[in-house]
Amino acid sequence: MARKKNISVCVIGAGLIGKERLMSLRQLIKKGRKVEIAGIFDPYAPNKDEIAKEFNTKFFDSLDALFAGCPDWIFIATPHDDAVEIAKKALAKGFKVLVEKPLGRSYKEAKSVFDCTTKKNQLWVGFNYRFFDGIAAALKDIRQKKFGDLISLNILMGHGGNPKDKLGWKLDPVKAGGGCLIDPGVHLLDICQLIAKGKLEVMCGMPWKGFWKTGIEEETNLLLRFGKTAINFQVSIVKWASTFRMEINGTKKYGIVTGRNRSYGDQKYIIGEKWGWMKGGSQKDSEKEVLTSANTDSFTKEIEALLFGNQTKNSIKPCSGEEALAVMELLDRCRKILKLPV
Ligand SMILES: NC(=O)c1ccc[n+]([C@@H]2O[C@H](COP(=O)([O-])OP(=O)(O)OC[C@H]3O[C@@H](n4cnc5c(N)ncnc54)[C@H](O)[C@@H]3O)[C@@H](O)[C@H]2O)c1
Fold it and tell me: How far is the CA of 82 from the centre of ligand 1 (A)?
């Protein structure tokens, strides 16, 4: 019987997340998955030899050289403006592409990338928050109606970054395509969209800026709704204590996911019953811890699901191009309500 060929992956951009993807691929190889790192392209990476050695691969001198290697997959982890142009070229050549979130800097740009696809299931977008253990478990519980009817959700994320952030591209309105709403807020919009299934209505909101003074929104508060369920949404890059918190309030139970990883603390997911205190003790005593996780392997889980499709009916799936486009459409509607440039 013929041996199964390795799935070859090239990575474009060897910064923070490019390296996360490379580490995940290496982890999958160690695990015995039939995958290989076919090469990297990043003309600006300062330590190419070191990186190539670390991941037992090579750097390409140009994008065309990478394309000529005909990998099965291309992973793109560059600044948002560069990612748009690279993704379009790779898609037009028929490659399967995973581009880190967001898909473009606006709906219009996302659509222009999507329109370069030449076949179905060709474009995927990196939304690894879906694969954080606490979030994934809570999403499954919502799907299985564990909480009863959803009354409301509070979803909140914030960090304060680093004084050096002003020198990088992430606060640059053109390169990043906006402020905290697109990055990291787009992760939260993706989660909201998964929960709502249908279309979310953007009711009202308020942006704040004035600390970094690069013109982008630095904190955003929004009220969204689907059916009778409200979502209180806050994302901030001027929140000095790293915070992730998702509260799900249903007619039967509630769930709370806190933490994310590293400075946010481990992710913890608890479930509480309506009137749990009636079973004796306090409400807090009646809460059950579902899990606590350091969330170190969300990128690996996302890639494994993408490349090997090892999913059961209920498992969390990677974000398709279509879903990512819908997230960008929602993001544009949030921007309109917030009176931010679209
Ligand atoms: N999912 C997450 O948790 C998460 C976290 C941070 C960033 N991201 C996303 O990952 C992507 C990359 O962010 P990052 O933090 O790794 O940024 P980064 O600045 O650390 O790395 C970007 C890399 O891209 C390279 N690069 C720039 N232009 C290029 C080009 N034209 N061709 C090839 N390489 C080029 C740079 O040299 C750099 O090494 C962004 O889309 C960002 O939103 C996701």
Answer: 9
